[in-house]
Known about the structure:
51% of the residues lie in helices and 16% in strands. By secondary structure, it is α+β, with helices and mostly antiparallel strands. The chain folds into three domains: 2-39 and 264-439 and 689-815, no CATH class; 53-253, no CATH class; 449-688, no CATH class. Strands 14, 15, 16, 17, 18, 19 and 20 form a seven-stranded mixed β-sheet that branches. Helix 10 packs antiparallel against helix 11, helix 13 (409-444) crosses helix 21 (738-770) and helix 20 (725-733) packs across helix 23.
Amino acid sequence: MLQDYKLGVRLLLKYPGLTIAGGLALAIAIGIGAGWYDIWGKILSPTIPLAEGDRIVLIETQNTLTNRPELRIARDFLEWRRELKTIEDLGAYRTVARTLATSKTAPEPIQVAELTAAAFRTARVPPLLGRGLIASDETPGAPSVIVLGYNVWQRSFGGRPDVVGLVVNIGNTPATVIGVMPDGFAYPVNHDAWSPLQLRGSYGPLEGGAISVIGRLAAGVTRAQADAELRVLAARAAAAFPVTHEHLQLRVARPGEFRDVTGIAQLALTNVPALLVLLIACMSVGTLVYARTATREGEIALRTALGASRGRIVGQLFVETFVLTSMAAAVGLIAADATTRWAIGTQFTETPFWITPGLKHTTILYAGLLAVVSAGTLSLLPALRATCARVQPHLANLGNAGATLRFGHVWTGVMIAQVALTAIAIPAAMETASETFRNGRIRAEFPSREYFAARIELDRAVDEDASAFEGRRGRAYADLDRRIAEEPGVIAVTFADRVPGTTPRGQSVDVATSPGSASAFDDSPQTWSVGAGFFEAFDRPIVLGRAFHEGDRNSDARTVIVNETFARRLASLAGASPIGSRLRYRPSPYLEPDDAGYAEMVARSAEWFDIVGVVRDLGLDPDDRGNEQPAVFHAASAGTLSSLVMSVRVRGNPATYMARLPVIAAAVNASLSVQEARTLEDWISRRNMNMLVTTGAQVVTTSLVLFLSALGIYSLMSVTVSRRTREIGLRAALGARPRDVLAGTLSRAAVLIGSGVFAGGFLLLLFVAASRDDVALYAGFLAATTGVMLVAALLASIVPARRALRINPIDALRDS
Length: 816
């Protein structure tokens, strides 16, 4: 075995082309496979990095009638805490945005987990300093306390050791710091600090605010047993409160667990994409290994004649290939580790605490398994083909460059499929890249340097009535709006339900241009909820009809304004003006019940809205062709928006005003919290970056497919030349011209390229035509793709073709 490994290393050095090309392809494939497995393993089957983390569970409540989670479960939680025997340390928590401030530090937005002492105790992690939450802290009327996270302690307090006992302001509530948690502790999800959740002694059905319930399975108890006990309690509650609890379903779940992903689906999602990428790579690298094996037929025949068994030779070829795949796996793991660390550290900054950078040990083992599978896939077929024939034909070729192995229909079909896939992938990647850079240029024309935007939150008690909270929120925002508008250099202040230029939200609509008319619209316009002065703040005047007035912000108002693109689309479809037309939303098949705005959209789907105005396009949301997307705007009040984003236009550097916003908000109302304050240019850049990352991934994938196709062509040419050594030499001896020899050598590669490009191009253009996209644009990209493929084929064919031209006719005649 050791000799086989040594031989494998020597062969890697002997065939540097195979080593570099094949090793790179396998490293990319195994790296993608390992990274995919690691990320989805962490998402679908998370490992909670706490003591006996696999026993930490959530109690989820689902309304089977609406298919939405029910979080108003304070009454039920209190009953479960008394009755449940299968779950211990049962606690409740909720996530709130708060502003942390001291007399010496500026206000800082943080995510606070308000939780019961039992929920805090469930983590079983002792504080780094001070103490954690205890039962007396959650008693109504108890002094306000807070436990800080490690990062907040370092960032806001400089890591001072005497932080315990300091009084800080959490929103408008003074609280005493009682402890600091260790680095990396963000339980239960991704929190910065922890304060007691103070609940009343009793609640009515579905009374109180939204909470989540967490605990630990008791010793020796399984999830199935806990589920069984919960079903008994659910049946009891349904009998006692049929109106509110008849359709409530309970289940025990692990933190981060997907509710609707079965074990089979989870296994497939984690493994199938990785194995498909690996299979494609193995198909191409396999042609290289097959070509190398073809040049060693004489050696294999000689060893067989000297008594080597077939199993011994197959085993040796497997070990030789495993040397290549194991080295590729090591490189792929390094790349996968770096990529996942970058993604989790920079692109997914709000991930749960159990999704940590770095590959799991199981991922390393998984990559080793992929290396073994790859080695078997690459070596088995060439080894069996090389050892299945009689020894005599192979010995007849010993001493010359001839070969009896040849590519069959399967290998040829695989290479044609790869070329076809490349012919589809390159135009798609070119179109995506073109779209990304074009839309980036369009958004760059907007004067985003004059604006900044921030999410504004208001502290809400767990028992606060919704209407009372909405009134308080509206008044607090109005005070903040007036205060910001008084700042020197502020031009305009407004709000909406999202940041302009970020990812849009759309919903299909029906438009009636006259009473009883059929729908005259075939698109899904963006939907906006905007405050007073929104259009003026962004210099988008009303070009037809009227603007919103205060009456439109009433909950009974049914008026909307559309943009110019909507008006043009309606005119082209129905030849009608939007003013006087009515629209109604269709239920969205894409929005999930947990998504922001879901309830609002469901309510809108049963109502007709009158179009009263047309506003100029915002210019920040181009579609795939660079045209602005249709949009519908609703007048909104600050108190009723579930997500409120303040946008401010200023003279000068917006970062200066942005830095002062949390201070001003705290001075206006200590309950106000400023979240994600960024310049509008930064918001838009983040969206552009997401598009660039997606485009880059597509380009890398396309380049990999092109690279693999070139490998297949190279292998085909190598085997073709090795098989036709005598033929080429005889033709040269009989007077054949070099260009005729070269043309004959390259003909099969030309047929392969032409067949693949034709098949892939036909499917691509057929799909584009069916999608009513720009066929001419894709045809141009396909023409460029053909040129790229021809260049790749030429480069891949140079070495085998030169080898064919160097064949000595005398040697070929002597060997024949």
